Amino acid sequence: MATVTVENFLSLLDSLSSPNNDIRSAAEANYENFKSAQCESLVLMLISVSSDNKTPDHLRRLAIVLLRRVLISDEKNWYYTFSDYG
Length: 86
Description:
The protein is mainly α and 86 residues long. The protein has one domain (6-83). It has helices at 6-16, 21-37, 39-51, 57-72, 78-83. Helix 3 (39-51) runs antiparallel to helix 4 (57-72). The N and C termini lie far apart (26 Å).
């Protein structure tokens, strides 16, 4: 998967909250692909977006919710994953 820019990621988050089911379903598939291919990058992008005051509030809130879901999931042991960076 190619590197995801902040602009593309914000567009993905916006699509995840779309009232249009087709747009939202496509965004959910893209999000899951990104999560499975580059989970660490996803976490860092979610942290970045949620802490950027220039990001619209509704996207910041969504980023925080998604970050929480990723961090509490059983798919990864985040303590050991990020302990390699410190």
